[in-house]
Write a structure and sequence with these properties.
About 45% of the residues lie in helices and about 15% in strands. By secondary structure, the protein is of the alpha/beta class. Strand 2, helix 2 and strand 3 form a beta-alpha-beta unit. The structure holds 1,3-dihydroxyacetonephosphate (13P).
Length: about 250
Amino acid sequence: MRIPMIAGNWKMNTTVAEAVALVKEMRPELDQIDNVDKVICPPFVSLAAAKELLAGSSIKLGAQNLYFEEKGAYTGEISPLMLAELCQLVIIGHSERRQYFHETIELVDKKVQAALKVGLKPILCIGETPRENEAGKTEEVLSRQLSLTSEQAYHTGLVLAYEPIWAIGTGRAATGEQANQTIGFIRRYIAKQHGREIAQSVRILYGGSVTADNIAEFIEQPEIDGALVGGASLKPSQFLGIVKQTSEIKRVK
Ligand code: 13P
């Protein structure tokens, strides 16, 4: 019922020339894989070139951030309107933005609303720090991070990504079972907030050290609808491996 999604978050990697080469290399095979929503999220400066290269393909394009105002004197920021011309999705509230750029829950929600207003689908990231995890505060933290997300946002197709911060870029992924349990909690929380139907229809991805070698462990879990992939999304054979396995495993189930 929920179409799986694999999204590649390239983070602050690749020049335009490198991004073009990567898209060219991945497009032919990636385009052929069905039963998965395939998304790549290169840096802002490569979105226009990537859009051209992906025209007519089944691969979707996402940005990694946006500002909530549509235009004006906000030097250096990128608006939802600018992105709506280039891509279909946008990552919002990534832990790196919350951590290094001090994005608050309120700011993240303003960005979600701004994205939805122009028809961009948000991939809203949530996740706990290692310290919060050790203190047994994971559920409390996730509930707070989701507290402002409106019913309307879910209806419009918002995608969630559960990314425990201790698993990001560390090579220390959660186990499939751990991730499934926490994502199960997220669904129960959303059911309490907005009802069972919304909780059952929202796609929830896992993120944090996902590779072609461990993706199956996550995708086999019933609550997990896909992955938000960092490092491995920059390696064509890894990313293709992740997408292919997802397509196959979710087809059988
Ligand atoms: P890694 O896959 O490199 O751990 O990054 C995960 C992530 O932050 C994706 O948004």
